[in-house]
Amino acid sequence: MTTHEVFCVRCGSADTRVSRLDRDSAEGQCFRCDKPFQATPCQGCGGFRIDGSFGVPGTRFENLPQTVKCWDCGHRNPLRDPGPE
Question: In this structure, are residues 16 and 52 in contact, taking their beta carbons and an 8 Å threshold?
Fold first, then answer.
């Protein structure tokens, strides 16, 4: 894992508070979305700096992509279900 920073799985924001972090998952709260989240690590490098399922912070995809990019290694990971709005 390159960094301990965890991006929100909904919007991709780095403005998060992480309450639990291990090799298999991370849990925290996104300050931008004001919602809790559970993140899974990148399949390529194990990092948690991965684009959000809804795209660029503050916007949402009209058509959801099949993959999201890891900012640490560039690996394309399967889109994650961000959970209920």
Answer: no
